[in-house]
Structure formats: structure tokens, C-alpha cells
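pipeline/complex-builder :: batch 7 item 3
reading input block
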Amino acid sequence: MELLSGNEAIAQGAWEAGVRIGVAYPGTPSTETMESFAEKEGVYAEWCPNEKVALEVGIGASAAGARVLATMKHVGVNVAADPLFTAAYTGVGGGLVILAADDPGMHSSQNEQDSRFYALAARMPMLEPSDSAEALAFTREAYDLSERFDVPFLIRSTVRISHTKTPVEIGPRLEHDLKPYEKDAAKWVMMPAFAKPRRKVQDARTAELREWVEKCPYNVVERKGAEIGIVCAGATYQHVAEALPEASVFKLGVTWPLPARALEAFAESVDRLYVVEEASDYLSNQIRSLGIELSAAPGKELPPDGELTPSMIRLAFGMQEAEHIPTQGDVPGRPPALCAGCPHRLVFKELSRLRAIVTGDIGCYTLGALPPLSAMDTCVDMGASISMAHGFELALAETKHRPVVAVIGDSTFGHSGLSSLLNTVYNQGAGTVCILDNRTTAMTGQQGNPFNGITLQKRPTRELDLEGILAALGIEDVSTVDPHDMTAVRSTLKRATDSENLSVIVFRAPCVLIDRTRKPAFTVTQDCRACGVCPTLGCPAIAKDPDTGMAAIDDVMCIGCGQCAQYCGFSAIVPTADRTKGGADAR
Amino acid sequence: MPVNATNTTTVLLCGVGGQGTILAADLLAKTAIAAGCTVKLSEIHGMSQRGGAVTTIVRFGDDVSSMVTDPGSADYIIAFETTEALRNAPYLKQGGMLLVNDESIKPLPVLTGSASMPERARERLCELGAVLVPAGAIAKTAGNAKSTNVVLLGALASGMDFDLALWKDQIAKRVPAHTIDANLAAFRAGAEAAQGVKA
């Protein structure tokens, strides 16, 4: 028996099913699925620049006859939605399974969308495991189902499934030969003449799926009392089992299509039927649309957003919360922060000094929005920094306005910033674009990307030449700057934002989590005048004494980047003589 | 219906990103499995890795359903830091064990002067019945400053029923070979420290 996370279990299930090819773009909470798959025997796996590309690679490999796993977070499904909808028409060659990992509670996401609506809208069947054992079994079997019904299968997980380790039995790999590829334009060329008949194929397949799902063993009825019946799925099922041990439960393992007749029979077998679901009304609406009546929970209404817990479900059914120690009012928040020595820090400090309008993007550097840097105006989705900056410039063109600066990371630029920048160039837009090239996809755990030239399975490739690409796009004003150098950051930003023309600044220095070189820590001398400037950098190694206002540097946390020393007007921040204590080894 | 109808034991580990809560949770989970329990271990990572607050939940017993916990429901809380101990104290079940590493790490809003640390944190934790263990100092004395988390596990183990050999087995399997002795010493010292505080 192994203790696997839901993500590891999905990777294991795919491997056992003989999957040869894995494609993904990293995104919490899906990332470890492809990392785990990539380490298995006899597979090929790659990071792609974005989820759309990943799914298209996957559809190609499936068409060619291989079994394929594609993984992404919920917002990644938005990016991949274009091929996803049409893949539900073409169907598959080799089995194709797509993981959509949702993040109710938004632990690490910009929204809380429910990927089950994609299954409904695309008419693509969706399995929803409630622990790692089911994640493994459902994924393994989804490949046979995908080939049997000639359609990709979606696996939906949530953060509590993806990131919870539960016991599983692992099995051997069943090698799966490539299905011989034969040209079949009516199946694979989705132009109107062929897509129209494929739509009929899809409808016929949906009818078959609706029959299959009525008897599908993944949907389980746990019959207890006749008073209360609960319909639920995934992690929510586990909370229901904990909170309402006396209730009869219809656990859905398939959340599209729903087993209409089985649900009707279950509804008739209980006095009152309830749906318990998290941050969504997908199941409630779908079940009501079958003509099944649902009751409102008798107690405190379940929240429409965020994660559920057993206690919330107990409260909804009229029980009390456990007695507990009251919430301690004076506990300060502990938000995440840019690491000590992070190469992004000075760029945000200087943008803040410039009072620029900063359109931000998705990555660690979104933390530049938080105090004390507070140097970001917007963050919407991958690549939006550059296109939104163009929008700001268009709207403010006739006005006297503060400089507009887009800030985007290297991996996010490769994901979808490139096409945004192409648009700005094409439409002769202005503004300044800062590409924070820290040589890695840092936020999700330091993955490779086209710009650092590291592939998922460490196969040799080449680093993309970022400045070369910018030149090829026809951008005349391109600078490359060391982001640890305050003077260079300040003067380059000033010059670029003073210009009427589009400019791009590449700030290049490795993330401190990939480059572990440590220099002697800095320390604050008696010359400190308590001016309060260095704490405004928001470095977790610098503390301001609440009484004296003097600065102090934590010599264990400080990595010796020297950023703060450049801001000290009294030369009171100096490097220590040697690095015998603290630093990387002690962390 | 009683509030907790199951015989599941719930342990909430909390601290600051990078403190080693996840390894401690893993060792606890593996020990519970070795003792014949079924286990769920739920962790949240992502944004929280950048010095933010982290919590990991380990639940074990004959049959474990939910992977999360609620206020008043954790049998054990292991806090790697005093502020996080206060933040998470409401999760403690009445009669549960609140084990705290006697160390404070200032969050960024405190470092920059826009917030302050909780007042009388140690005293308040003691009033709540917490067992405070200077785990960092104990780890250093035991020979490896990085084994603070193992000291805390030792302290936790002293309040649990698992055979000590099961714990030691898991520790020996998981830590780097040259640190096994120091980690086992840290584990023993943690157990002794907790016994000393409680006595």
C-alpha cells in the first residue's frame, strides 16, 4: 500500500493504463501530476508553453494512436477550451484523459470556477474521484472508456483531492500498443461539411453515455436512513460522510452526464433530497432540470463560495458547532511575500516610486501588489499585463497620464504574453513592458520553460533568445538590466517611460530558489538613522524596531543580495565579513 | 448526534512556509499506517510557500472520511511558531493537546511596522494549556539544527499511543543517512522535553 496524493494517483493510473505521452503547463493544484508522471518508466512527458498548446499536442498524439494524459488547473481549461470543445466532436484515436484541477477557496488562483460546466457545455464526460484510490482507478479505466465511447474523458479534482494523500494499491502497467493511424478526414477535419455530421455522432454518443452512466459503478448509493438523502461528489462526499453518518448518500463518480433515472429512484426513496456542493450550483441546477425536487437545508445556509467543511454541513442540518477556543483577535496576518533577495523586488520598488500604472500578471511577482510595495494596479489572467497595458494606453491616449507599465514573468510571457505583445506592436501601441526573467516558472515550484531551456524530463533543448524574439517582433527599444542594480533599474525605467514609443525592459537574474549561491549577509551599523526607507522594500530579512524605528537584518534569512544597501542614504547597511553562519545551509 | 461520531484522530500542524511541517506530517502519517491505521494527509501549497502561514492536517483511525478539520475538532495541534499557535488554537478539541515550538517569527506586516505581534503570546498559550517546547534549541543540542520538526514529533509521540519503534523506523527511512543519529536523538529529546513540561 502506498500513500499517494490525488495528483500522484492520477499519474499512476495513467501509467498503469499504458499512457505514453503526457502534456501540461504547470498550475496549482495540478502541477505534481505531470511531474510525477514524467518520472515513470517508459513515458514521454513535456511542459508546453500553455494549456491550449498542451491539449493540441495531446489531441495530435491521440489521433496518431497513443494514449495521452493532459493536465491543467481550472483556469488552464479556459486557455485550452478551444481545442477541448472540438475534441468532443472529433473524438480520439488512443484514449485521451484531461485533468481539470479546481481550486475552491482560491488558495492559489484568481477565481473559483467550476470545471464541471465545461463537461456540460462541451458534452465531454467527466469523472470525479473522492480520494486517491478512486483517482487512480478512475484514471486507469477512463482510457478504456475514452476509446470505447470515442471521446476524451475529463477528470475533475479539487485542491483537497489533488493535495490530500490517502492509501492506494498500485498495480502493474498494461502496455498499450499504438493504434494504427489511418487518415479519416470526416473524423478529424472539423470544417462545416464534416463537423455537422460529427455533431450527430456526438449526440448519438451522448445518448449512449446517458445509458452507460445509469449503471456506472462509479456512482454509489450508500443507503442509511430514509429521512435524508444527499447527492454529492468528490471531496464534499467525504465531508458529508463525516458530518451526516445517518444520511443516505448518492455519491456521484460521474458528474456529466448525470444518471437521471438512478437519481429519480434515489429521490423517491428518501423523504427529503438535498445537494451538498462546494462554491457552485452545478449539481443543484442539473438535478432540478431533471424535474427532481430538492429541499433547502433546514439550518444555516451553506455558503455559495469557498470550501466546505464537515462543521458547515452539520450547521446546515441543524446541529451545533463544537465548542472551541474563541478566535484570537490580535493575531497579525501572515501573507506570503517575495523571498529575501528576490530579483523582482527592486523593479516593484522603483515602479512604486515612479507612481506608474502597473498592469500585472500571474506568478510570484503578483505579490508585488501587496504592501509595502503595493506596486500593481491589475492582475486578471495569464498574459493580460501586456494586453491590458495596451488597453490603458488606448483609453488614456488623449489625456495626460501616469506612465503605463506591464509586468510579466518569463514563463507567463511564453504562455500568452507573446501574442499580446504582437498585438501591441501590430497596432502601434505605446507603454513599457517589463519582462521579469528569473530563469524559471517559480510560483508553481521552479519548472522549466522555453526561456530557461530546461525540459520536464531534462532532455536537451536550447534556451530561447528572448531579446532575439523581441527584435524579430520589430521592437526597437529593448534593454536588458540587472534587477539587483538600483541605479540601472531606476534610470532604465525612467528613460523607457519618458519615451513615446513602445519599450521592453528585460530584467534578468535567477530566482533565489534556483540559484543557491549565497554572499555574506548584510548588517545594519550604528549609523542607522531610523529613516524607515529600507523596510519599504518589504524584504522578510529586514525588520523595523517598533520602538526606535531602527532597522535590523536577520543574518540567517539575508542572502547578501545587497539591494537594501543601495537604498540606505547613510551607508549604514554593510556586508558582514564572512559567511560562516546562516544562509542556505541553515534553511 | 454527537459532534464527532467517529474514532478518527485529527492532528493539525501549522507554521510558516519552509519550517518543515510537511515532512513532520509525512512521518506522522507513515507511522500511523505502520500502526495499522488508515490515513489522510491534506496540505495546501502554492502561494503559501513564500513565507506565508501553512497548515497540514493528518487524520487517522479505522476509517477516515473528511481530510479537513473544524474549530473545536483537532485532537492535537503542533504549532511550529507561537503566532500560528494562537491563530490555530480555535481548532483544538476540548481536552486536546496544543504543542507549541517556543519560537516567534514575525510576519512581514510586523517587520515593516504596519502590524504588531500578539500581546503576551506565551502567557496566553500557557493559559490555554499549551505545552511549550524550545524545539530549535533542543535540536541544536541534539546535533542538527534542522531537526526542529523531529523534536516536535518526539514531543507529540509522548502524547500518542504508537509504539516508539514505529516512529524511529519511519524517521530512519526518511532523513538523510548521515543525520539519522542526530534525528533520533532529537526525537528522544523532544519526547523528554514534553514529559518534563507536563510533569
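note: The domain at 9-112+120-198 of chain B is CATH 3.40.920.10 (Pyruvate-ferredoxin Oxidoreductase; domain 3).
queue -> next item
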